[in-house]
């Protein structure tokens, strides 16, 4: 769908959402288009509640501000109900097996969102659950965030195919999902990471295979300058993600030359967009002048978590 065209329905009901590589280019674009349409309805004050009497369980082994609030508010706005379950309520891998928990929760709920450490937890939960499972974040992937990221780029630039996105920093779950989403959507993705912190080679290889079909270019480099040159968008993340806090000092040394600052962004296109999944550490991975500057769209991006996830919920549960 173009931003002015009619939304063509694609049936995704009952599907899991574990990573973007499980979805086709057309399906990802449909979710983005649906998110934009749902956002339009919300901004116009339209009541849109296709998920009345639907319930979503939210399993949090890793804490989060944006993920919890956006999913809870999203379900409420769609007419449904979200149930928050912290790591103290459900202890993955201890006591009750994931297989039992998945089958029991499937009899209570219409869908499950899980935010956890090991990606294998997400996969096992989805295997045994008979309701859709959404990956709210794992150590391997962060597809919900990236769906909102590409929605933001699409809204701001009017297209995705042919854009260049530069990601500077740790080759973590954000880098993986940005690579997969970019490869699927025809976005050229350049990742600049210090030696030893590159993205998973198997993810990179898979994305290069996808890119052969979509025309996307995948570049992995240790040069932030190479990655950022002529970029339409620049993305970064914290140097020490949750679970790696004990490596903070070590990572500060390794990433010292990988800060996104006023000097680096001069190499991008003048109308580049700056994105960050938040929370951000000003003065570490990004300078205050960049993240709070006129090219930054971090709060539009954060808002789009709500709309992108509402689109997911409608598509999978509606």
Tell me what you see in this structure.
There is one protein chain. With 318 residues, this protein is α/β, with parallel strands linked by helices. Helices cover 42% and strands 14% of the residues. The protein is built from 12 helices and 9 strands. It has helices at 25-43, 66-77, 98-106, 119-128, 143-157, 173-185, 201-214, 224-228, 248-254, 262-265, 288-291, 298-317; strands at residues 55-60, 81-86, 111-115, 133-137, 164-168, 188-192, 218-221, 233-236, 273-276. The longest helix has 20 residues, at 298-317. The model has no long low-confidence stretch (mean pLDDT 95).
Structure keywords:
318 residues; alpha/beta; five-stranded parallel β-sheet; four-stranded parallel β-sheet; 9 strands; globular
Task: Give a brief description.
The protein is of the alpha/beta class and 318 residues long. The protein has helices at 25-43, 66-77, 98-106, 119-128, 143-157, 173-185, 201-214, 224-228, 248-254, 262-265, 288-291, 298-317, and strands at 55-60, 81-86, 111-115, 133-137, 164-168, 188-192, 218-221, 233-236, 273-276.
